[in-house]
């Protein structure tokens, strides 16, 4: 059985849950409580020296890390439904949209970074929220522009079926909503996210549906 | 002719230069001076609404963004020499090592983030350096552990030829050296980087060899 080490609110684990669901793959979940610091335990670091979730342990005991690498692995082993188009320039567009979230927004706003801002830099709540919103705004401004003006966009980020880009977008929007970011300037993003959320694979992957939600 | 919009010191542009060189592809460079803020100009944003380098404009005028997406695009169109192994779990390992740099270290330490620390959060030089080194140390600790204990490692991050992981590692080490990070705890990383630097494709992609270096 495939085992996912994750945390209900981790955006990166959320991405992998969506992909496992889209592919119709059964998996067992082992919660790693990030707030309690369980990701830094010796036990977990034996699986992943990065001390980060998600980690996916496959049937044969191989541990895979980094959410986008895991998603592409699952897509290569279980090609249908496809997370990427066939044509190289279109694949590059989907990966770029995914990475705009995964490399430009999320890394700046995850729990370990927010903790550094508060514990080391002594930022108050207002300054922490301003930081959070600054990176969401910059990233979503760009994403909305790309989704609005590029021909590849459809009901989803690329075309009319979910791709790796939507897999990254939905957890980021969930997170932005949690930090009460104003998303009214992003109608295209909102429409796409609504289309995703209407699908079981996305709904069942959402944080509130996980065993460790609390 | 393929055109690369970049900046000599940008780690992300550096990655793409390495791949273009490894593949033996001719390209024209258009420097975008990040220190002067040229990436925020209307002219550049017409190419890339993200206001980030690199952007690659292909022969047919398509603009591609996000360095890892560009690298995989080039690898798909020009498969030899390969940037990724053939076997899915090995591909996932290489992508994870690349993303450990590209999603966990680099996004926290690039110029726009350091500028925010200084201009908005009023951090002094010491606190800025501590921030920089904190994310390099965490990331390189994990990377050194993975490279040392995982069977896939060789003269390069994976096996005995350069992959996408080395393409990300070398610019990150260049950057860490510029910020005078102590790398003595990372012998395996250092050995791999020395092997990369001995190759023309890496050497010719290095910042000091670029037309806008100064």
Automatic annotation (TrEMBL), chains A, B:
Lineage: superkingdom: Bacteria
Keywords of this protein's UniProt record, alphabetized? Isomerase, Pyruvate
Gene Ontology CC, one term? cytoplasm
- An example Pfam family from this entry, by short name, is GST_N_2
Identify the Gene3D superfamilies for this entry: 1.20.1050.10, Glutaredoxin
Domain annotation GST N-terminal: ranges: 1-82
Q: Which GO terms describe its molecular function?
A: glutathione transferase activity; maleylacetoacetate isomerase activity; maleylpyruvate isomerase activity
Q: If you read the UniProt record, what top EC class would you report for this enzyme, in one word?
A: isomerase
Q: What start-end ranges are recorded for coiled-coil regions in this protein?
A: none
Protein name, please? Maleylpyruvate isomerase
Which species is this record about? Halomonas chromatireducens
């Amino acid at each position: 059985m495939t085992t996912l080490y994750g945390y209900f609110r981790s955006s990166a684990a959320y991405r992998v849950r969506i992909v496992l669901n889209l592919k119709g793959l059964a998996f067992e979940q082992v919660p790693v409580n990030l707030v309690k610091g369980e990701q830094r335990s010796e036990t977990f670091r034996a699986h992943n020296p990065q001390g980060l979730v998600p980690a996916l342990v496959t049937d044969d005991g191989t541990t895979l890390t980094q959410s986008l690498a895991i998603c592409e692995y699952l897509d290569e082993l279980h090609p249908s439904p496809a997370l990427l188009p066939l044509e190289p320039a279109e694949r590059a567009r989907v990966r770029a949209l995914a990475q705009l979230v995964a490399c430009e927004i999320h890394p700046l706003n995850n729990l370990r970074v927010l903790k550094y801002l508060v514990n080391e830099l002594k930022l108050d709540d207002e300054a922490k929220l301003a930081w959070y919103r600054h990176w969401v705004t910059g990233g979503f401004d760009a994403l909305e522009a790309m989704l609005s003006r590029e021909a590849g966009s459809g009901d989803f980020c690329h075309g009319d079926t979910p791709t790796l880009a939507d897999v990254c977008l939905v957890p980021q929007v969930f997170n932005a909503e949690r930090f009460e970011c104003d998303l009214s300037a992003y109608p295209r993003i909102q429409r796409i996210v609504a289309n995703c959320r209407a699908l079981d694979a996305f709904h069942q992957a959402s944080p509130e549906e996980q065993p460790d939600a609390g």
